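Repro case for the chain-ordering regression, as requested:
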Amino acid sequence: MVDATIPTRRAVLAAESSAWDRLKSNRHWLGYWFMLPALLILFLFLAYPLGLGIWLSFTDAKIGRAGEFIGLENYEWLQGDSIFWTSIFNTLLYTIVASFIKFGAGLYLALLLNQHLPFKALIRSAILIPFIVPTVLSAIAFWWIYDTQFSIISWSLKKLGLIAINIDFLGDPNNARASTIFANIWRGVPFVAITLLAGLQTVSPSLYEAATLDGATRWQMFRHITYPLLTPIIAVVMTFSVLFTFTDFQLIWAMTRGGPVNATHLMATLSYQRAIIAGQLGEGAAIATAMIPFLLTAIMISWFGLQRRKWQQGENND
Amino acid sequence: MASVEIRDVRKAFGATEVIHGVNIEIEDGAFVVLVGPSGCGKSTLLRMIAGLENITAGEIKIGDRVVNDVPPKERDIAMVFQNYALYPHMTVAANMAFSLKLRRAARAEVEARVKRAAEILGLVPYLDRYPRQLSGGQRQRVAMGRAIVRDPQVFLFDEPLSNLDAKLRVAMRTEIKELHQRLETTTVYVTHDQIEAMTMADTIVVMHDGIVEQIGTPLELYDRPDNLFVAGFIGSPAMNLVKGRIKANGKAAFTGPNGVQLPLASAPSHSEGRPVIYGIRPEHFTIADDGAEAEIVVVEPTGSETQVFAKLGGEEVVAVFRERHQFNPGDKIRLKPDPRLVHLFDEATGKRLNA
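-- result from build under test --
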């Protein structure tokens, strides 16, 4: 019955309806209709700005003046700009050092929080505080902690008799780098710790019991069971951590604005300074665009790191 | 291989005591099954032997050594877990070799032992696979292989078959039993399934609420349960238990609900009018003219036997016959228990009364 009626209905539809009507009712198009809202959002807020940014980097646009296409001139100009190269060095230093320490400290905290502790739930939520405080607020707090006159660290060390004069946290280039990296670590560790903790909790306790009976020490259990089982989630969390750190802007801008003498300028802050503060949209866009290869590299590394490992494949019927 | 001795062992979690003084002696090479309903403490006891739980009071000896304070890895035991606890990121071979590698055994020795275990268990084609790529039964075997390669003093099994389907469970039951006959390693096996216990054990330990109810060979427990709990727990379908009183004067008999008279071979002394529970196994009923009248409720033919559910003095009993009876619900039959095979239990204490 059903089979017999469908062709005739189709035939009628085809004869009476326009192409637009068919598009509205065709099942094959239905999927595309459902995807349309997401597609629009992605295009409007991701693809279009990205494309516009890349296009701007090939123009001499300034604020208030549409630019003209100038080819690679912005990039050629940046090649000879030592501040640009400093910012790349700073960004790599910032990302690599902060990410390594965030991973180490995050893993350590996660392992610690996975033990039976008194007030476990309370401590776990407390760990998240640096992550949920708005970045600018924590940056301002750090600004005060690092203040040349009123720094609580300097004050404490002086009271303890360890130093004679205040430490110039944000005035000295290397101190400033270390201080901003520390602030970034403080902010980023909770994310790593909580995510890894979630990963740790998926490891069945009976595996540790089996390993105990097999004669494994605590270190061997970590080395042969915890760590290998955690690698997939480490790949995910470190990808995000590296991307967030590489593109960090708020902390630096609120604390140092890239100073002193550009020692803490990251590519993101330099791009903002050139494009918005100085009004050189084209040049700022070129700096931002120069971040893309680095980010793509990070993504590719994690992509291969994230490939399902052989032991994760196969039937999952347990 | 070694004997295991459990002496007055207690276990408390905080203020709650879950094992109240247990004494079990396990001979070298024996296959002992701890059986009981869930929450009876059997798994906790096994984990105490393994060293995964500490012992609140009492003493556990493996061989001649008191192991209360010996860490698990030095107890020389191997355990098969209910969920197998296979390392998901290691191949079958690596899973089995893990303990040997930790002991820094020579490579050739590791390989030889893994190969031998794999041959015993029929796992040779699967050595390079990961646990996820195996079926339930194969994983079960890998878990056993991991235990075998270590050649331990004692094997501990914690409900190893409960994650398998019914058919596989029966097959693995036989395999484990064969394995034990081949390796002759002392084995402690925990299960809640009394059929598993009956078919596999040399000695069964029936546990209930943290105490040992009875220890004995499967047939001892079946033929002479010490108390009501064991009587009801061992055997399927379960033993019929009927409340009533003893009539000792004259020919011994038992008066059940609604005046039903059931035969007794003999009554314990000074027991006239004593409230007791009369136990009779389903297969110890016969149909006889001098039996008690019962009304058929349901008949369940299984092919090899016929299970008959009937009301005897208003109480439902089950009888099993090797013959194929054609009864209809509501039919009246006369059931006669074999008086020599009757079990009598004290109604208040649940203890066995007759010899």
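Ordering looks correct now. The first helix of chain A runs from residue 2 to 16.
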